[in-house]
């Protein structure tokens, strides 16, 4: 099928990310109530279920949080393109949460008239993700994970970027946002939720206007950056274990040969990490 008057194939109609018919302010408030969702300096955690999809209220909240996170970064680093890293664990809801966050980021960029490069590292352990933020000199990062919590729970953690407000190296680069920064993100998200509760549909309009192709592109795992992430993490571990020289590594291998090793799979995320470590160490 072609577009009328052109030789170009017709583009499929974009389905809305959210419709006003499927989401109500009271449902959003219920979903973010303290008994249902933890929202603190360490991030967000809630029961999203064990299916691949998440509720409309949860999609809205994830997008609002990501929007607020990007709003903070844009305010601090005016006039420059930002790089934000993504990572996730293997929980069934990680894909849906990540997609909602990406849409919120792209909506924030469009609203601010700014550019943001969203780089997905895919399935990755949190320590490796944090080292990647430093190695790839990102402005910040979003890790979708609930660590050792049950499989039906999931969450999001936001990390500091490499640069601080004075454009020097941030002393907490790769670590979780400080409590004050996370409070700023939560306040920004709360303002977006309150505006929606007051009848303002602007955020939903912006989220629905984000191109599905742009979301898919942002969610596509970047193989080169992922490889750089693993190399950086191995380098970090070698420094931590004082194995920076070849003879150090040879001595370490001799010392552990034949030993019984216990690997914590961390819900499955660290299975790949363990394989990489065993091959290299």
Give an overview in words:
The model has no long low-confidence stretch (mean pLDDT 88). This protein has ten helices and six strands; from the N terminus they run αββαβαβαββαααααα. The chain is globular and about 65 Å long. By secondary structure, the protein is of the alpha/beta class.
Q: Mind telling me the C-alpha Rg? A: 20 Å
Helix tally equals: 10
Helix-residue proportion: 40-55%
Strand order of the largest sheet: 1-2-6-5-3-4
Distance between the termini: 55 Å
What's the total number of strands? 6
Mean pLDDT: 88
- The ordered string of helix (H) and strand (E) elements is HEEHEHEHEEHHHHHH
Sheet with the most strands? 6 strands, mixed
Which regions have little confidence, pLDDT < 50, spanning 5+ residues? Answer: none
Structural class: alpha/beta
Shape: globular
- Approximate strand percentage: 5-15%
